[in-house]
Amino acid sequence: MNHILRQLPAIHELQQDKRFTQLLENKQLSKGKVTEWLQEAVADIRKRVLTGEIEGDQSITFTDSIFSRLSERVSHHSTFALQRVINGTGTVLHTNLGRARLSEKAINQVVETAYSYSNVEYNLKQGKRGSRHDLIDELVKQITGAEAAMVVNNNAAAVYLVLKACAKGKEVIVSRGELVEIGGSFRVSSIMEESGAHLVEVGTTNKTHLYDYEHAISEETAMIMKVHTSNFKIIGFTKDVSIAEIKPVACAHNILVYEDLGSGAIYDLKKDGIGQEPTVTEALQRGADLVTFSGDKLLGGPQAGIIAGKKKWIDQLKRHQLARVLRVDKMTLAALEATLKDYVNEEVARETLPTLKAIRLKKDDIQKRIDKFTSSLSPFWNTEVRNGVSQVGGGTMPEVELETELLLLANENIKAQYIHDELRKGTPAVITRIIDDKVAFDFRTIEEEEFEDLHRRLQDIPREMGKII
């Protein structure tokens, strides 16, 4: 063992190797940091020799192995953990892949805002300190009909703030059929407990009547909360109570009516025959005093939680200490403002916002994308096009299936799982599905500007296996 260890080169000798100098020049890393990683590589090999994992004789050399490890470490350091991916799944609002894609206008506004100073909390007209809440207030009012609005960092935060600020120590009435759990084990009942509000369940899982709410109201009741069940649907023997029905009862007892919409539809997809998702405007018109919804779902903007409704309650929320804790940064505000501006003209919104465009994409348009992509595809791949369905995703409209066309690729010499895994591991990563031992691509979520990269990634696979296209 000792004779093997003696063959480990000294650090100063390794620093004289041209590969060490090349790493410093190419990656613009400090000599100290690369030396530290070099020492770690040597220490790891020494440990493996001592534990018997590495055996050898007098002719063994470790230099190549050390520099191979060092090169991998430098490469890993130079690669961002958060990377762009090509979404071939067809799920438009894929939670694991970042949900909504931003519009070009929103991206440009984020870049400009991030690159320079901005008036995030400065009133240019008055020449004094301003409020970041004011930046989107007018836009939300204009497109939803709300009296006022504010933004926090996500919809879960919006729900928490409303409960904490408006119902702490008081009772909140919720139908049992609306006590939902969303991704990450986020439960309405749990967040209500954390907020200090006291949950009062009424009705049953499948049926809740107006009299259930009426009988539950007490002197301790502060709020009736409606939760839109956007991530599941109960069908059959069911009954629920609308905000419009609840509102007169709540008004008679001076109780706040609050609805958590979650998905945040501003554009009415029902006009296109897609789902039955209520819009924010509809919720407010039905009588909700406050409505909360997401920025990065059907709205098609950045991650944010938007609270809209009566000015009396919004002002109370803005004054709460948690408003500062949950506030969003200037880049989120920039992206959100640019997204909301498109909704001022509905025709503009549905043509410029990637989320609305992808959801509304017709089957024939997807077929055209496939035809264009396969026209320059290598004959190495066996292709098949078949009917399929896309999902809206993001816990939104679970009952909606969007008709699509799927491109299935295969090669008799390569297993589909291998192709699927290799596409995921490369740059850019390509996320696909496997159907009938073939790799499936849904071009609803693959844009034409991504074709070149996808072609290149597909060319890499046979090359890595020693094939020639």
From TrEMBL:
<dbReference type="Pfam" id="PF03841">
    <property type="entry name" value="SelA"/>
</dbReference>
<keyword id="KW-0663">Pyridoxal phosphate</keyword>
<feature type="modified residue" description="N6-(pyridoxal phosphate)lysine">
    <location>
        <position position="297"/>
    </location>
</feature>
<keyword id="KW-0648">Protein biosynthesis</keyword>
<comment type="function">
    <text>Converts seryl-tRNA(Sec) to selenocysteinyl-tRNA(Sec) required for selenoprotein biosynthesis.</text>
</comment>
<keyword id="KW-0711">Selenium</keyword>
<dbReference type="InterPro" id="IPR015424">
    <property type="entry name" value="PyrdxlP-dep_Trfase"/>
</dbReference>
<comment type="similarity">
    <text>Belongs to the SelA family.</text>
</comment>
<dbReference type="InterPro" id="IPR015421">
    <property type="entry name" value="PyrdxlP-dep_Trfase_major"/>
</dbReference>
<dbReference type="InterPro" id="IPR018319">
    <property type="entry name" value="SelA-like"/>
</dbReference>
<protein>
    <recommendedName>
        <fullName>L-seryl-tRNA(Sec) selenium transferase</fullName>
        <ecNumber>2.9.1.1</ecNumber>
    </recommendedName>
</protein>
<comment type="pathway">
    <text>Aminoacyl-tRNA biosynthesis; selenocysteinyl-tRNA(Sec) biosynthesis; selenocysteinyl-tRNA(Sec) from L-seryl-tRNA(Sec) (bacterial route): step 1/1.</text>
</comment>
<keyword id="KW-0963">Cytoplasm</keyword>
<keyword id="KW-0808">Transferase</keyword>
<dbReference type="InterPro" id="IPR004534">
    <property type="entry name" value="SelA_trans"/>
</dbReference>
<dbReference type="GO" id="GO:0004125">
    <property type="term" value="F:L-seryl-tRNA(Sec) selenium transferase activity"/>
</dbReference>
